[in-house]
Write a structure and sequence with these properties.
The complex is a heterodimer. Chain A is an alpha+beta fold. Chain A has eight helices and ten strands. In chain A, strands 1, 4, 5, 6, 7, 8, 9 and 10 form an eight-stranded antiparallel β-sheet that branches. In chain A, helix 2 runs antiparallel to helix 3 and helix 2 packs parallel to helix 5. Chain B is about 65% helix and about 0% strand. Chain B contains two helices and no strands. The longest helix of chain B is centred in the first third of the chain and has 27 residues. Classes of the chains: A alpha+beta, B mainly alpha. The interface between A and B is large, with 39 and 32 residues.
Chain lengths: ~240, ~55
């Protein structure tokens, strides 16, 4: 949400990383204060996270990895404070810190293994008809999980215009909209030897006229998740010669 | 026996000074060559996700 708040200002790539720098820097005193409470005064403990190579590297990323460690440190600090002197306010601080930490960690790493397998089966068409699918799993929207599995399977967001493809080839692609994932292909549609168009066409078809339900053409700014390395040949028997 | 108040105040100042120094140095280290690496795939996806639709919220 913090990242989204700054996007209207069109920040440069490096300025997007400043928030993570702040999270990483704030982790230094958080860890030091925690260690002071548990292990005493050794000053070196403040300098270890300050220079820790992996922590420095992950404090310079656009993705807020450093925020996870900061929230975890704050949760441990809150726990130590509550165990030291149990007070309702300290319990509330502990609850909020744990909640924030678990949510952050959840976004980073926690994906149900069964869900991941089901999404992979859907993406690769392993025993599942691809076509049109709802992106709801046990009542919750799993669009971000599907995008993560698409990325893990080498699919990339791209427009139809950006997809490199020749006549006679087609690329598998998913168009995500609302809570629906439509599987289809980016391909050339051949009308005559001198007339053709490149488009994304969903496998799902309209019920009234059997046309492709979703069609995105060269001018469409919308993106689909496609993997050009999975291109296939397909029958374009009407074409004899194609002129760009 | 607990330490005299003056000594405890001195230790607290030293702790605060060391912590401030470590934090400032840590900030400086993290700002060095912040623009050196281009985005990795995870960061590209983060940018895509941030700029996409949040209608599901």
């Amino acid at each position: 949400m913090i990242g989204r708040a700054f996007e209207p200002l069109h920040p440069a790539d490096w300025t997007r990383k400043l928030a993570d720098v702040l999270w990483g820097t704030a982790t230094i005193p958080a860890i030091r204060l925690l260690l002071r409470r548990r292990a005493g005064e050794a000053a070196i403990t403040a300098f270890l996270p300050a220079f820790a190579p992996f922590h420095v590297r992950y404090s310079q990323e656009f993705r807020p990895y450093a925020l996870s460690l900061l929230l975890l440190s704050l949760a441990l600090l809150s726990l130590d404070g509550y165990l030291d002197r149990p007070r309702p306010t300290r319990l509330l601080a502990l609850y909020l810190a744990c909640l924030a930490s678990s949510r952050r960690r959840g976004y980073d790493f926690a994906m149900d293994a069964a869900l991941a397998t089901a999404l992979d089966d859907l993406i690769l068409g392993r025993g599942v008809a691809r076509g049109r699918h709802s992106m709801r799993y046990q009542g919750r929207l799993v669009r971000s999980e599907l995008e993560e599995r698409l990325a893990a399977n080498s699919f990339r967001p791209m427009t139809v215009r950006d997809a490199s493809i020749e006549a006679g080839e087609r690329i598998p692609a998913f168009y995500l909209h609302d809570d629906t994932a439509d599987f289809g292909w980016i391909r050339w549609e051949i009308f005559t030897p001198r007339s053709r168009r490149k488009l994304y066409a969903s496998e799902h078809r309209r019920t009234d006229n059997d046309e492709w339900a979703i069609q995105l053409n060269l001018a469409s700014p919308e993106t689909v998740w496609a993997d050009p390395d999975r291109r296939e040949s397909h029958d374009v028997d009407t074409v004899i010669a194609v002129h760009p | 026996m607990s330490a005299p108040l003056a000594l405890r105040g001195s230790a607290r100042r030293q702790f605060t000074l060391a912590l401030t120094a470590a934090t400032v140095i840590g900030l400086g280290v993290r700002l060095v060559r912040l623009d050196h690496f281009s985005y990795g795939l995870d960061e590209i996806l983060e940018a895509y996700w941030i700029n996409g639709s949040w209608a599901f919220l």
